[in-house]
Amino acid sequence: MRRYRIRKDESCISCMRCARECSFGAITEGEGRTLVFHHGKCTDCQRCVSFCPTGAIYVTEDGNHFRSNSVFMEDDIREIMLQAETGGVLLSSMGAERGNVPIYFDRMLLNASQVTNPSIDPLREPMETAVFLGRRPEGIERDSDGRIADNLPPHLELSTPIMFSAMSYGAISLNVHRALAEAAAQLGTYWNTGEGGLHESLYPFKANTIVQVASGRFGVHGTYLNAASAIEIKIGQGAKPGIGGHLTGKKIIGDVSRTRMVPEGMDAISPAPHHDIYSIEDLAQLVMSLKEATGYMKPVIVKVAAVHNIAPIASGIARSGADIISIDGFRGGTGAAPKRLRDNVGIPIELAIAAVDQRLREERIRDRVSVIASGGIRNSADAVKAIALGADAVSIGTAALCALGCHICASCHTGRCAWGLATQDPALMERLDPEKGAARLVNLVNAWTREIKEIMGGMGINSIEALRGNRLALRGVDLNSKELEILGIRYAGE
Amino acid sequence: MKKEGEVRISSGCAISGIFCRDGRRISGEAIKRSIAVMHSRSNGLGGGFAAYGIYPQYREYPALHVFYDSETAREETERFLGRRFDIINLSKIPVRQSAKIVDAPLIWRYFILPLPHMLQDSQLDEDEYTSRAAIMINDSITGAYVISCGKDMGVFKAVGYPEDVADFYRIDEYEGYSWTAHGRYPTNTPGWWAGSHPFSLLDLTVVHNGEISSYDANRRAVEMYGYTCNLLTDTEVIAYMLDYLSRKQGLTLKECSEVLAAPFWSTIAIKDKEERRRLSYLRKMFSSFLITGPFSILVGFSGGMMALNDRLKLRSLVAAEKGSTVYFSSEEAAIRIIEESPDRVWAPRGGEAVIVTLDKEAVS
Description:
The complex is a heterodimer of chains A (494) and B (364). By secondary structure, chain A is α/β, with parallel strands linked by helices.
């Protein structure tokens, strides 16, 4: 099954660097310092290209194509052949690839001030991006002296509306966790452990850590829950709504095994549902149990995949006692998911956020909870649009991995990540220096934050909360009236 | 072309206010002269006044000022009112015909009292009962617009320059202890009587100069709490937010100002501990009610007035004092024309509310 061709030109100096870098066995060293290319194994991860000192090597799409057919495309035929050969479920990673589902972010345009009100220059005036996530009571209370009492439950405080999505230790390496934790601490935002527990060496990052409780309960214990600022109950994720996770026994070694509390070499399979949550009232009990276990000191987040019924689901979560709802859209990434689910289940985050925000407002509870959007946020403009549609903040997973070197070759599930991210191979893991990784993540988020400030300033908005749900900041192009209605925006020119 | 209410129109403006802390009631002549100075800040597409203390003989009763597009709308509204209120007095609001003010609707005034059994059955307090009735008329009776419904106060507004609006309504014949005025410069509306300012709910009136960039965030927030923004104007949404924060949440006006024009986090950070706690609480609790973008507002209420600028002071607002009289205006010239030598003239800082109320001895 050859997708790519590896080629080199005459500038190659036979240093063999590419062969050493290739973790997929696509380039090996032959006799007498010659390179052997195994094109069929190439994932186009670009590691060899990036490290070739002379720029001699390059990867191209294989020129050989099947006879074109408008129904059975080349990928369809390839997949049929593969399944006929193996009898297996097709696995894939990263976010959905179906090109026929629109990316609504690209069909929304932002506003700016002209004449009737001034734009605000972020270089000269304060431009506030701090976000507080958590529950709000219905009304104020005063003490006997008439002073306003602080009846707010604990909130998460973010210096910027961008946080890091859940990615589990096991799916990604400890060095990635460390880079995320350090970056979150430097940025004043949060990273999320995912479902694989928290390595003890990262406990000091408590002030910037969100720990996850997923259906497998891997690595969940009292110390773990209290080693974080917030707890996230993971019901589902955008890449694979409705199913659990599967971490192969090959990755359950050493500290991963210890941290997950799963015996070495045993597959870690998290069940599709939480077996103590078969309905919304059960969720309320788990929310309260976790609050009991942590002395009501931490907000509880409930993360769900954006599915058809997302608006009433979110409303149910808001009434379950959860403080924050995290919604992961159709394009959300994963370390491993059945391809058919990844590409066919769920709805895009833009529509989900718009529907949820509107429903919570109609039920008059939008101000009671906070909402996080994720699943295919690629840049600061996506983040601004998600917030204008109604999110309090966004979280990024794939974009964070890209900052660490990922080129989205979608081979995470193989465990052979050449960039040292989605792997537990000690030799590969070393490829990521967590300090340098953290610095790159900090750069990325700072760059986005600067851009967000520029965009806000252009609109004459100098605090992020005035952007939240401010749908007049958006106009649609190339959208039908139903899409405009669900997004709650007008067409450009209206 | 869509009229206001169907589309959001931005506008520039002039505002002016006079408040007599000693409760002395002065004629509307002064406020007219003040706002007239800023003629060029309006474009003839809207002017209006709010006056407090003008109906002492009826001070117990909500006064409804209503515009009707037709007799049918009037009859329907009067039937609606009759089912819910005792109508103590009703009349046309007297006007002076003027070539400068055209296309006037029918303009009526009612003094009303909630029917006791209806009020009791509604399980609402009197204010909420009255405000809901006013909102319901605006929402559901075509061609009827309640433009004010507070006690011992009223709003007078029209399409035209404010000084012509003053002559039209004969406001020199009214006497009040508190006056605000508004001259409007909408960018692209044909002008609409009900869309002029002040905007009011119960005894709260707002005149506003600016265009807020947080509009839709604020609108969608306040609409959660049962308000319907029909006019799609900044002034309307600001009035509803103030009503929600003060009447429904029980915040003081100062606290309201600390929500609407919240201090920057960097400012909060240097306050003492208790103040830091209080201000952070207000920002976190009511984050959807922060207003960004330029605004200067004068808020009238029974017994007081508040002036407030956006936190960057992107709109002019000047205050002055002479004896027990307080003046606010978009331009100092508009104060000097009626008070040549004030004791003090100052520009309130961005986000810093100036709140004046009647002296104790003035409250009878």
